[in-house]
Structure formats: structure tokens, C-alpha cells
Amino acid sequence: MFKKMYKKMYKKSIAVILAAALSMSLAACGGKSKDSDSGSAESVTAAAETGTDEEKSVESAASAEAETEAESEAKKEAKTVEASTASGGALAVTDLFTERDLTQEADLSDAQTLKLESGKDTTISAAGVYVITGSAENATVIVDAGDDDKVQLVLDGVTITNSDSPAIYVKNADKVFVTTTDSTSTLTVNGTFTADGDTNTDAVIFSKDDLTLNGEGTLVISSTDNGISGKDDLKITGGTIEISCTDAAVEANDSIRIADGIITINACNDGLHAENDDDDSLGYIYICGGSLAINAEDDGIHGTTVVQIDGGDLDIIAAEGIEGTYVQVNGGTVDISASDDGINAANKSSAYSIAAEFNGGEVTIDMAQGDTDGVDSNGNLIITGGTVSVNGQSAFDYDGELSWTGGTILVNGEEVTEIESQMFGPGGGMGGPGGGKFEGEGGREGLPADGQFPENFDGEMPQKPSERKQK
């Protein structure tokens, strides 16, 4: 009798722990507990209640030992990312990620395996999970499925090298997942992209529909144009992604959403770029986790409407670090080295007011010499919390109103108690020791006549994130 009771209690404990683990992970970073992409939460519970031979073999173990094993199995099954989300942000983030977005390992129980062949495209026309293997040249994985079909491509150590077409091309689907196994996949386009009729397929991974990248492995992308392009919503929730390109590393029409992952972007024109040419109320970027190292020639992060950062570790080297109509930092660590503006809130969208807002997190901005601003808002400047540290000639330049109710502001290494537009640091600046408005000659109002940084700023732009970290 006790044996049967223990058996039932054991199976129920597994189901409860699995459900709790999934629920907790989905509550984080804009996730939701029920997923429209799949019924995986129900299938996990059903599997736990069914039981396995391995579970039966430990029925005589102590209760504490059984609970430990159940917890371990729950973590193994769930494999979902966890990150914190700020509340009351500019964006409604409750449903930005689904359970399937956040799950880093594909369900391979009904998967099909497809091996690549050089000179031959592989076309997928139905919903399902497809494991892609092998190496090939001038071969494209094409998804051309139904409007309601969800397709998951599992890259298992894949290598694709093309001369003029994407390695992965999503022509039609409801949603596509690109998931890496615990291996390295390499996708390269080394020539000039050729259009597909009226479609300018200009990225190594090109999707006309919603796209999610996740997994446990590494994806290396090299492009003569864009790296990853999504014409709807584009999400990254896991894995390691390395991109080198000549245009945008990651671009999307409607939104870019990042919950986790290690993303490295080198030598691209823009790092993250979200813009919808037909609707200026779209094109936002949301980051609540992960690690991003961006080295870009133009904008590190560019969103037409909102750029909201709730978490994560961002290291950006660019002409402009972050640009959007409404730029909001609620958490995370943001390090920027810029040669134009560190953070620029500009009139990109008619749907949002122009503002740069800081409610939390740690922001460090190192500016190059010249006509540069650490934080440049063509509208309002709002600071309620966090730490903002700017090293440069002009820390803040705002055209609207200032609201500063909390947080810490450092200019060239010293904490200040006042913020005024075009504020300079110690030795003759607004808001710092010495106070007042600098009246020297030198072109733009407030620019020192000699055009030099304060003595404690070296004026050098590091070439790599690792070098800037050592400063």
C-alpha cells in the first residue's frame, strides 16, 4: 500500500515541479504562461503522470532524494531562459515572448532529418520540426508553408556557403524557429544577393514572417549585406550568435526582441535596426536579457519608435550608440563608446513623444572629441533612477523639459547635482563644480574654445569592447 501511495505522490511531485518551473520561467522577460505556439506545457505534465521505467526503479528511494531528482529533471525538460522585466515601461511587455520562444531545446519526438546537398535547395512545405544536417555550397533551406504553419529548423552543425542567395529563406509560414543544437553552425553569403522576383532577399537568414532564434549552440553568420532580416517580429532568446556583415546585423520591420543569448556583432553598418517604412508606429527594440557586444560604423541600436532596455549586458562601439524616438533604460548594464551621440532621442516616429528616460540600470558613455553629446534628446530628458556616467565635452543636450527625481549622474568622473543642456564637467562646465554657463568662443554654443576634453579624459576611442572595458 505504501509503495502505491509513494508512487502516486512521486509522479504528482514531478508534474507539479515541472509546471512550476515552466510557469516561473515564462513569467520572466515578457513571457506568458500559456503558449499559442504549442501545447508543450500540457505534454510535459502528461509525460510526468505517465511515468517511465527509470522512475519506477527508484520508487523505494527516500523522499528527499526523489525530490532532488525531480527538480533536476524539471530543469532539464524546461530549459527556458529567465530574466527580469521592469514594470511600467514604455512598452507593454506581458506577451512579447511565448513559451516556445523561450525553450532552448526542440522537441524531436516527431522530427524529420534533412541532409543538405550542394547545388540543391531544400524546401519545407508543412508545419513541423526539421533537423538540418550536413555541409553544402549554393544550397538554400526554403520554408514555403501554410499561413498557419509553425516550422522549427534545428541546425545540427550545419555549414552553408552561398554566392548570391540566403542560406535560410522563409517565404511563407505563420512563424519559424531557428534553433541550434549544442554545436556550431556556419552560414555564409560571399557574393552579391540576387532578388527573388520583387523580393530583395538581402540577408543570410531572410524571413517574410515572424522569426525566433534560440538554442544551445553557436551560429556564425557572415554576409556581404545584412545578417538576419525579419519582415515582421524577430526574437532572440538564446544561443551564441556571431555576425559580420556590411549592412545591418539584425534588422526587422516590426520589432526586435531579445530575452537572452550571447550576441557579437563586428564590422556591420548597424547592429540592431528596427524600422517599418509603411508604418512609423512600428519598429521597436526591446531587450531584457542577454549579452550584446556591438561594433558598428553607424548606429549600434536603432529603433524607429521605442528602444527599451530592461536588462542585459550591452557593450556598444558606434558613431551613435542608441537611437530612437523614445529611448528608455530601466535596468541592465549599458556601456557605449560613440563618435557622434551616445544616446540620441530624435523625431523618428509620429506615434511617440521624443524623450530619453533613465529609470534604472547602469549607463556609461564615453564620447569622442568634437561636436558630440553623451545624451542628446530632441525632446524631454527624464531621470528617476539608476546611474548615468558620461565622459566627454557635452554630457547632456535636450530641447524639451528636464525631470530629474532620482538616480546618480556622473560627468567626467564626478557626481553632479544639477543638469543643464550642454553641460560640461569639472573645470568650467554647467552643473559641475564651478557652475555657470561657459561663454568661451568655439563654434557651437557651450563648446570650449580650445576644443579639448577635460584633463582626465584621454579622448581615445577603443577598437574593441574588451579594450574599452580595461579603461
Name a few traits of the molecule.
471 residues; 24-stranded mixed β-sheet; twelve-stranded parallel β-sheet; disordered C terminus; disordered N terminus; 36 strands; mainly beta
How would you explain this protein's 3D organization?
The strands form 2 sheets. The protein has a 24-stranded mixed β-sheet that branches. A 12-stranded parallel β-sheet has the order 2-5-8-11-14-17-20-22-24-27-30-33, with no helix packed on it. Residues 1-27, 39-67, 71-78 and 423-471 have low confidence and may be disordered. It is built from 6 helices and 36 strands. By secondary structure, the chain is mainly beta. The longest helix has 25 residues, at 2-26. Helix 1 (2-26) packs antiparallel against helix 2 and helix 1 runs parallel beside helix 4 (63-78). Helix content is 14%, strand content 39%. The protein has 3 domains: 2-78, no CATH class; 98-234; 237-471.
